[in-house]
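Lecture 7 notes: from sequence to structure.

We start with a single chain of 235 residues. Read the sequence below before looking at the structure.
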Amino acid sequence: MNSRQRRGVILLLLSVLCAFGAFAGVLSVIRDVNSKVGPEVSAYRLKGDIAPYKELDASQFEKIKMPERWLSDNAVTDLGAIRGKIAVTQLRKGSLLQSDMIVNRPELGDGEQEIAIMIDAATGVAGKITPGSTVNIFATFKAEKEGQKNQSKVIVQNAKVLDVGKLTPLEPAADDRTGRRREAVPITFALNTLDAQRVAYAESFAAHVRLALIAQGGETPVSPDDRSYTLDEDK
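Now the structure, written as tokens:
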């Protein structure tokens, strides 16, 4: 082997050694990154905005991978967790789904049934009544005959709200000379048969139906003397 061949072999060996060194360096960087980032886990990101109090569906989310160490403790990693749940607040597109964003959808109890009625948005809801709320339902009735009095009644006490629908425009009432368009919200309640009949009657024949929100834990019965009211009682 002449000197030129020896130099070629030496250069070839040096090239191989450099390649091994570079490969070892890459592996070292990868190990270092893995040690800092850690294993990846599944998380779920919102594909679009979700309105409050709406039941959730798997199609509203996309699965992503991210390092476990960067994921919050309350992040949802299994979409089975949304079954039967509703959004507790407005959820924004691109947000990671977390357990404190969702709550159980209110359910019917024994002997209860769902009934929905339209409630005037301005006087009956005011944006504060949500699924899970407890309300008293009031109805006002105009006097039908001369000598009778207009009357307000508490027709249902401690009614459980199951769902709050979307704001819906209504046609002006026949006796409304202003021609103003009103807006109402469909509210679904869980009621026993008698209370459901009372609500259905009031929606059909009462001049107005209104809701009074009850503070959490404040469900107390209304005394019989306070269930109805006429204006002359304040005189």
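The helical segments are 3-37, 121-125, 193-205. Keep this in mind for problem set 3.
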